[in-house]
Amino acid sequence: MGTRLKYVSWGLIAVVSALTAALPLMTTDRYLLKVLTYVGLNVIIVTGLSLLFGYAGQISLGHAAFFGIGAYASGYVTTALGWPFLAGLVLAVALSALGGLALALPSLRLKGHYLAMATLGFSEIMSILFVEAKGITGGNDGLSGIPYASIGSFEFATPQANYWLVWGAAALALVAAAGIVRSRPGRALSAIHGSELGAQACGVDPVRVKTSAFTLSAGLAGLAGCLYAHFLGFISPSSFGLELSIVLVAMVVLGGSRSLAGPVAAAALLTLIPFSDSIIPGLSKDAVAVLQDWKGDIYGVVIIAVMLFLPGGAAGGLRSLRGRFARSRAAGEEAGS
Fold first, then answer.
1. Which is more confidently placed, 148 or 318?
2. Helix count (H) and strand count (E) of the chain?
3. Could you report the per-residue pLDDT of 175-205, keeping only the tens digit for each?
4. 287 contact partners, CB below 8 Å, separation of at least 6
5. DSSP for 84-128?
6. Could you tell me if 306 and 262 are in contact, meaning their C-beta atoms sit under 8 angstroms apart?
7. Residue 321 CB: number of other CB atoms within 10 A?
8. What residue ranges define each of the domains in the chain, with the CATH number in brackets?
9. Backbone torsion region of residue 279, taken as left when φ is above 0, otherwise alpha when ψ lies between -120 and 50, otherwise beta
């Protein structure tokens, strides 16, 4: 039974991956491709946040800040200094990862709500810095004229090219995260989530593991920020506020802890809500207005409802149902014999 489910899971992954890669060949709708590119960007961030929050149990309300650091780092050096895209990409990931390291070191003694407040404070500091550092960020006017991503002479100047670039990066991030989860570092993350003292008794160094998780997670957010800046061509501080951090946490909570597929599906669902008027045919204007005006409240209700009634998220609920089905099937076979 387990082997059969494993083959089914890999088959579904292969089908979804093939459809995702082939989608730009099936449609010429530029707006739809743009929306789905936003989904891919959130998938990259949520993949890193899943490792930090879902597996290690370290909550962060500061990932919008790391996203902004990556966007402004690459945006500035490619526009003002003339750096090539790949150099800006490396700088964006490095600076965001260093930001994660800088946040992790003084926060290692904090847990739960206290850690969340520390990351929230970091996010607010960076939001102010994005506004005040006008020489680099452009302040409230934003940073414009950011060139398209390019590799050599090839420029990602079309919606299809940007879609493949972002989703290619998302696929690599997911593969890397899956490899980490199945390896010794992944087991160390899960051990810390279960019991930090118990993990330490088994030889796991909580400081090193949590610091690595923060650094990697922040680096992935910086990668997404870099791709976002070069995809959009314009960035402003309003794109990197607290609301984004809350939405990212909602994606992980809804998708489920100790899962990568669940948060990815939740990222797709919650990213598409603001664009529902364009992607859901026949949706009334009243429904659209409700979704747009109350989306922040919807995200909050989702977090509260999932934590109260489905603590393991969608992935945890599916695992529970699968376990019940397997037990009832085994009991039926035992009774029949």
1. 148
2. 16, 4
3. 999 899 888 888 888 888 777 778 778 778 8
4. 276
5. -HHHHHHHHHHHHHHHHHHHHHHHTT--HHHHHHHHHHHHHHHHH
6. no
7. 10
8. 31-336 (1.10.3470)
9. alpha
